[in-house]
Design goal:
This protein has about 325 residues and is mainly beta. It is built from 4 helices and 20 strands. The radius of gyration is 19 Å and the shape is globular.
């Protein structure tokens, strides 16, 4: 279970790169997701691949500044209404302008976004310092709320797109209560990326499965919430990745924040009752119901996941493990 305060030291906000940004960012975190966080002075990289050392070499740090061939194989959809120059992918600070966008370029983006294969999710990363969400795809529609970018954790603000952009708008899932809330944002305000990863969680079997496209790549036992503080069924997505100060502590080596909230706790440890996926120092409890709603996995598993899964990855939680066919669009 995530919180706004408490904790036992400095937490790193580790941002997984999308194909549009190959370098990792580490941000100053202040009181977000399970523990209070102090500032950082050096970047932190998650493992480049499963089994890689947690502390990267200087070679890995420098190589991370340029897109890897593997990252480029997951082709970006592009900034809304713009086909970016590949040079822009190499520096997260470079943002292509959308002030002069041709109809042809907008048509290209629309066509690319619509070519979403089975098991692929469209992730929308906010371009500016904030974004407003609407109840319908219109400037005249009721505004739902505004979100600051980056998030309080320092992670970039991302949404899970529920459809391809149409007529300058895209429907997205919102990381707010009630769980499963949706809204509309202007397509020109975000960068789109195709994400081939997804997670499916079977509460009955206490198992988590990670897919890349249609291929299963990780299967692991998990610990879940108790009857009083259950892990909520529903469709969510990953909003941030954090590294606890003590890898041997309660939250293990890494923790993902999700877009969902506890159905029974309106606050936890000073926070809003956010649900997360994190490691554990009690692996003997995997397969049981012992948490406040968070999903606990073995430290080796969460470390492997941290080296793979970008922000915006969808997470489907089902009582019997049967995923909603419409959940991944």
């Amino acid at each position: 279970m995530a919180s706004q305060s408490g904790g036992d030291g400095t937490w790193d906000s580790v941002v997984r790169p999308s194909p549009l940004r190959a370098g990792l960012r580490v941000a100053t975190l202040s009181g977000v997701l399970i523990a209070a966080v102090a500032g950082l002075s050096a970047p932190v990289l998650p493992p480049a691949r499963a089994g890689a050392a947690l502390e990267p070499t200087e070679a890995l740090r420098s190589e991370a500044l340029a897109p890897s061939p593997q990252a480029l194989r997951s082709a970006p959809v592009a900034a809304a209404g713009f086909r970016p120059d590949p040079a822009a992918w190499r520096d997260a600070s470079i943002r292509p302008s959308v002030t002069t966008v041709s109809a042809r370029e907008r048509a290209w983006v629309q066509a690319e976004a619509e070519r979403i294969d089975a098991g692929i999710t469209l992730v929308a990363e906010v371009r500016g310092r904030s974004i407003t969400t609407y109840a319908a795809p219109s400037d005249d529609a009721r505004t739902l709320r505004s979100f600051d970018n980056p998030r309080p954790s320092g992670a970039p603000l991302v949404f899970r797109a529920l459809s391809a952009p149409t007529d300058g708008w895209v429907e997205v899932q919102l990381p707010i209560r009630p769980n499963g809330s949706t809204g509309w944002i202007k397509a020109e305000d975000v960068l789109f990326t195709k994400n081939p990863y997804r997670l499916e969680l079977d509460l009955a079997q206490h198992q988590l499965v990670v897919f890349r496209g249609q291929a299963e790549i990780i299967r692991a036992d998990v610990a879940l919430g108790t009857g009083e503080t259950p892990t909520p069924v529903g469709e969510y997505y990953i909003t941030e990745l954090l590294r606890p100060p003590n890898p041997n502590g309660l939250y293990g080596t890494y923790a993902y924040g999700l877009s969902g909230y506890s159905p029974t706790l309106t606050s936890f440890n000073g926070g809003p009752g956010l649900i997360g996926i994190h490691g554990t120092n009690e692996p003997h409890l995997l397969g049981t119901n012992v948490s406040h709603g968070c999903i606990r996995v073995h430290n080796q598993v969460i470390t492997e996941m941290a080296g793979l899964l970008p922000l915006g990855t969808p997470v489907s939680i089902r009582a019997d493990g049967t995923a909603d066919p419409s959940a991944v669009r």
